């Protein structure tokens, strides 16, 4: 029986006590306990200490640390230390070191610096995972297993070259099929056997390498990384089938297809590092992407920074209350944890300027320690109120990693292709209107949504075109955009005119696409009225059954449609031919929501974010004021209790600048 028996919000994070002496350890644990920390992750980077020479393990020091953590009644995720192999391994088996895209064999010294396909790496990683599993599986403090740390190295070594060819054999079967799928007749790039296929080692800013090959390579890296993860995860799972096994996903999420990777984990763990310059809605969207990767279920935020980072160009300290808002934002969007990197600031190394709960002074007499402690105290009071809670959304935004990669690998029509930022343009109005959003996989059941937005649905695969067609026929409202319906899953433009399989539903086809320089713009007009500006890309469309809702105001294509709609079956499909400025887009999306009676959670004024989760205990609303001014929210006729101070509220309420409210409906 463990000492924490009730479900609770995980609070704590990365602990690297192998850096400290016994006295510091004791002092740190007391400070962490007093701050409300209940969960630690360790020993992420201790492989060199745990296996100082091949097959000789030294675990006594760790046993002792785990004893001490347990003495403080805290729990922990045991991390396999396999993201940073010991020096002896790189020296003895150079195959474990990666080769970079320029073909340079890298030297030992970094972390996450191994070839994910190296048999020796996998052998040693499995070996230490086995020893750890056996030694620690029944420890009372164990909450689960954390595999390695932030996978994502791309390797171009000879072994990866060989493995890539095998992967292609599995995917395409014959060389003719590969040539066909890669359309190698272009530039005479046919290969006659699989061993002539080379890794795409040209740099990305040089478009000479076929983007289709790069796309397959990125798929291959994801699959190889999954194998690498599974290599350890299956051992840990076997030892304790009841405990979760997972890894932490890097905040830079593009590298690996997490829609493919996360289903191999028991829960998605991810590292949330918003930039000070981010719109607060941007990390909210990333949380929603993680929730989607985790199949809509709650996930874990495994890392956030309690203060400034060290790896940004200008590392701003977190403003008072900022950590709290960041933490609640994660909880609001589906996380059951609020974990931090790191517990105690290092004295040296790459991250000595990175924030920590315990600063270098070591005694907790800091603003950050106090803020974290207050947060810890609040989270403890919330108990399991919303743990496991889910969010029901009526609006979905289609999102896909391979679509992302393909769009950005492609040369033309513009160099400013930034899928994530572009998706965010469509997320932002919904976020601002307090409308919950699901990020939707192509494979999902679309019928549960009233409105679907599909930003730049360039790659058509998994029958997404047909599914969206059906969605509209059945009464759904779809909003599609420029760069839709171009390519199949091998990045071949096989559909004839764009938007390919969505041509009928949208009732138009795209004849040409103009690319605008950042300083250029066009206008969006209805009759004599100019609604606003547009830019980035301007499609010249030919209408079939659709009607123009607005037209361009300038250039030789003035008067041609820029916003269209098409009644189709029982629904309606909208198309926007150019990137609309925020106010025009928001107005348009508002209209679409209204047409399907999608209501915001609450109406609000000011920079307040509102989200909801629901579990067996009912609904919990999170109201986060990201602005510097008081915000107001209209709660309507219902009564709500603020779980943070037990005040009951109703009607129009005010939220102080930077404050957070956590509300539950009160039934009386
Ligand atoms: C990543 C890593 C951590 C640490 C933090 C610093 O997320 O997983 O080990 O380096 O960044 O921000
Ligand atoms: Zn390799």
Mean pLDDT figure: 96
**Fold-level CATH name of the domain at 395-595:** Rossmann fold
Superfamily at the CATH H level of the domain at 395-595?
A: Class I glutamine amidotransferase (GATase) domain
Contiguous helical run count: 17
Give me the oligomer status. single chain
How big is the Rg? 26 Å
What does the main sheet amount to?
A: 11 strands, mixed
- What is the β-strand count? 28
Secondary-structure-based class equals alpha/beta
Span between termini: 38 Å
Q: Estimate the strand proportion.
A: 15-25%
Broad CATH class of the domain at 395-595: Alpha Beta
Q: Please name the CATH architecture of the domain at 395-595.
A: 3-Layer(aba) Sandwich
Query: Portion of residues in helices?
Result: 25-40%
Low-confidence stretches: none
Ions, cofactors and other ligands present here are: alpha-D-galactopyranose, zinc ion
Overall shape:
globular
What does this protein structure show overall?
Helix 6 crosses helix 7, helix 8 runs antiparallel to helix 13 (401-409) and helix 14 packs across helix 17 (582-595). The mean pLDDT is 96. This protein has 668 residues and is α/β, with parallel strands linked by helices. The strands form 5 sheets. Strands 10, 11, 12, 13, 14, 15, 16, 17, 18, 19 and 20 form an 11-stranded mixed β-sheet that branches. The protein is built from 17 helices and 28 strands. A hairpin with a 2-residue loop joins strand 22 and strand 23 (618-625). Among the domains are: 267-383, no CATH class; 395-595, Rossmann fold, CATH 3.40.50; 603-666, Immunoglobulin-like, CATH 2.60.40. It starts with 9 loop residues before the first strand and ends with a strand. Helix content is 30%, strand content 21%. It is globular, with a radius of gyration of 26 Å. Zinc ion (ZN) binds next to helix 6. The site of alpha-D-galactopyranose has 10 residues, from loops.
């Amino acid at each position: 029986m463990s000492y924490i028996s009730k479900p609770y919000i995980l609070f704590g994070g990365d602990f690297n006590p192998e850096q400290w002496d016994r006295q510091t350890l004791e002092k740190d644990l007391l400070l962490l306990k007093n701050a409300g920390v209940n969960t630690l992750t360790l020993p992420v980077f201790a492989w060199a200490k745990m296996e100082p020479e091949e097959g000789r393990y030294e675990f006594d020091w760790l046993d002792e640390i785990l004893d001490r953590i347990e003495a403080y009644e805290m729990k922990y995720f045991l991390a396999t230390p396999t993201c940073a192999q010991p020096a002896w391994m790189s020296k003895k088996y150079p195959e474990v070191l990666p080769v970079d895209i320029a073909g340079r064999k890298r030297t030992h010294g970094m972390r996450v610096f191994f070839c994910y396909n190296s048999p020796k790496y996998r052998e040693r990683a499995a070996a230490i995972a086995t020893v750890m599993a056996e030694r620690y599986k029944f420890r009372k403090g164990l909450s689960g297993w954390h595999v390695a740390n932030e996978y994502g190295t791309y390797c171009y070594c000879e072994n990866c070259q060989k493995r890539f060819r095998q992967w292609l054999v599995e995917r395409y079967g014959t060389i003719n099929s590969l040539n066909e799928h890669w359309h190698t007749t272009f530039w005479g790039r046919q290969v006659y056997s699989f061993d002539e296929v080379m890794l795409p080692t040209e740099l990305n800013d040089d478009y000479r390498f076929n983007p289709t090959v790069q796309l397959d390579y990125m798929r291959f890296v994801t699959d190889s990384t999954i194998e690498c993860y599974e290599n350890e995860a299956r051992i840990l799972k076997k030892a304790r089938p009841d405990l979760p096994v997972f890894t932490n996903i890097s905040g830079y999420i593009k590298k690996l297809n997490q829609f493919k990777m996360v289903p191999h984990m028991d829960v998605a763990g991810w590292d949330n590092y918003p930039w000070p310059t981010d719109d607060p809605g941007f990390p909210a969207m990333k949380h929603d992407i993680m929730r989607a990767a985790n199949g809509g279920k709650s996930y874990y935020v495994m890392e956030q920074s309690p203060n400034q980072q060290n790896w940004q160009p200008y590392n701003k300290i977190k403003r008072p209350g900022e950590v709290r808002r960041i933490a609640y934002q994660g909880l609001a969007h589906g996380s059951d944890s609020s974990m931090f990197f790191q517990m105690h600031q290092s004295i040296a190394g790459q991250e000595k300027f990175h924030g920590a709960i315990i600063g270098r002074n070591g005694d907790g007499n800091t603003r950050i320690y106090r803020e974290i402690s207050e947060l810890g105290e609040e989270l403890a009071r919330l108990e399991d109120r919303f743990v496991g809670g889910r969010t029901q959304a009526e609006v979905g935004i289609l999102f896909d990693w391979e679509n992302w990669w393909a769009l950005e690998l492609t040369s033309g029509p513009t160099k400013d292709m930034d899928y994530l930022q572009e998706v965010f343009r469509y997320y932002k109005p919904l976020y601002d209107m307090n409308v919950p959003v699901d990020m939707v996989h192509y494979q999902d059941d679309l019928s549960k949504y009233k409105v679907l937005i599909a930003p730049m649905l360039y790659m058509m695969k998994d029958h997404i075109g047909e599914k969206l067609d059906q969605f509209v026929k059945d009464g759904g409202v779809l909003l599609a955009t420029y760069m839709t319906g171009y390519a199949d899953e091998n990045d071949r433009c096989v559909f004839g005119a764009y938007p390919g399989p969505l041509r009928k539903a949208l009732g138009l086809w795209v004849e040409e696409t103009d690319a605008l320089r950042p300083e250029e713009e066009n206008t969006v007009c209805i009759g004599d009225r100019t609604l606003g500006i547009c830019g980035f890309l301007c499609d010249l469309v030919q209408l079939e059954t659709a009607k123009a809702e607005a037209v361009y105001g300038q250039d030789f294509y003035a008067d041609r449609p820029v916003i269209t709609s098409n009644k189709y079956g029982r629904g309606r499909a909208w198309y926007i031919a150019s990137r609309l400025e925020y106010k025009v887009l928001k107005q348009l999306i508002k209209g679409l929501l209204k047409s399907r009676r999608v209501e915001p959670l609450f109406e609000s004024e000011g920079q307040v974010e509102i989200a909801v989760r629901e579990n067996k205990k009912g609904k919990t609303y999170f109201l986060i004021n990201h602005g510097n001014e008081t915000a107001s929210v209209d709660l309507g006729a219902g009564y709500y209790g603020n779980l943070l101070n037990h005040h009951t509220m109703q009607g129009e309420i005010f939220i102080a600048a930077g404050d957070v409210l956590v509300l539950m409906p009160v039934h009386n």
